[in-house]
Design brief:
Blueprint lengths: L20 H6 L4 H8 L8 H16 L7 E7 L6 E7 L9 E5 L13 H11 L2 E5 L11 H15 L12 E6 L1 H15 L7 E5 L15 H6 L7 H11 L24 E9 L3 H13 L4 E10 L10 H13 L10
Parallel strand pairs: 3-4, 3-5, 5-6, 6-7, 7-8
Antiparallel strand pairs: 1-2, 2-4
Helix pairs in contact: 5-6
Length: 341
């Protein structure tokens, strides 16, 4: 199985959390940047009421997507009740045969293949790989487990039949997601293992949500208290997203929502976890990577200094994005290259 492969790149990196008082004093966001980011933060937005406005703004911010090399495909849900759109983004130069199956962020409520097309196109160009972006159903119109089910269905179909992508086997597929998409990627891999289905060769989790509680008073993670107010993503906003996705606090203990609560984290693909320094989800993402290591998996954990939550969607020349692309390329470095004539 691909999960038994040797580590890709440097060995696992671990972090201590909660951070010490000295570390907390040192880790402060730039005041000007923090002030700008606060303009986009709750409580200026009430996500439970304004999520549709956020969706429209994200699409507007992404701009026209017609200039990108894309192909649109669909996969039927398991019960054939609906189609799940999948956007295929082609790199300017394809240098590797393996592909990236991408699950977008947005708190399970916002984001789609339109708003994420620029980021996925940049990822395709930077890695020289085809990227497939899944347009899963969103809450609150389609609460949990609808989004998870769509992502699981697409992954299951492509991993069972890699020939659909002109691949030889499932190990040539990397499952990747950011924020809520990282949450979904982790949950999908756990579900695939539980059912004895083929697993992707690797998973890449970008600042993933892995824990159900983001109340600064009760969260076990210091990053929630340190960065949960005044920045781009706030604790209140995450709690709103969670409420829209799964209204019952008790039900959020489901590992498909909180993978860090899974009883068994063994048998997972070789994993890259990337977090942002000034992100309230930072500690729980790194904790998930550490828990994977403890369960016997091969994991690389990286923190991007000076970065904020959601940096994947910044312009491709932004420093955190360039750094991220380099990390992903290094992590995927042993993947087979396309044969040249």
């Amino acid at each position: 199985m691909c999960r038994d492969r040797p580590a890709q790149g440097p060995g696992p990196t671990t972090y201590s959390w909660p951070m010490s008082g000295d570390d907390l004093d040192h880790a402060r966001p730039n005041k000007l940047v923090a002030a700008i980011m606060s303009l986009f933060a709750a409580p200026r937005l009430n996500m439970q009421e304004d999520y549709q406005k956020v969706r429209r703004f994200q699409r507007l911010l992404a701009g026209p997507t017609g200039r990108y090399q894309v192909l649109d495909r669909v996969i039927l849900a398991d019960d054939e009740s609906h189609e799940i759109p999948v956007r295929v983004l082609l790199p300017a130069e394809r240098r590797h045969q393996d592909v990236l199956l991408f699950l977008h962020g947005g708190g399970w409520v916002t984001g789609d293949i339109e708003s994420y097309t620029p980021a996925c196109s940049a990822l395709a160009d930077a890695t020289g790989r085809v990227v497939l972006s899944v347009d899963y159903r969103l809450a609150p119109e389609h609460p949990f487990p609808a989004g998870f089910d769509d992502c699981f269905r697409v992954a299951e179909v492509l991993l069972r039949e890699p020939g659909l992508l002109d691949l030889e086997d499932a190990s040539q597929i990397t499952l990747i997601g950011d924020s809520a998409g990282g949450n979904l990627a982790a949950a999908v891999c756990l579900g695939l293992r539980d059912l004895g289905l083929p697993l992707p060769g690797r998973q890449v989790l970008l600042y993933p949500a892995t824990w159900p509680d983001h109340d600064p008073q009760t969260s076990p993670f210091d990053s929630v208290r340190q960065f949960g107010t005044g920045l781009r993503l706030t604790a209140r906003e995450v709690q709103d997203y969670m409420t829209l996705y799964e209204p019952s606090p008790e039900a959020r203990a489901d590992p498909r929502i909180a993978p860090l609560l899974a009883d068994d984290l063994s048998g997972q693909p070789t994993t890259l976890v990337v977090t942002a320094e000034f992100d309230l989800l930072r500690d729980e993402g790194e904790a998930y990577g550490q828990a994977l290591v403890a369960a016997g998996n091969t994991v690389r954990i990286e923190r991007i200094d000076g970065a904020y939550h959601g940096f994947l969607t910044l312009p491709r020349f932004a420093a955190p994005v360039v750094r991220l692309h380099g990390l992903i390329n290094d992590f995927l470095g042993s993947a087979p290259e396309v044969a040249r004539p």
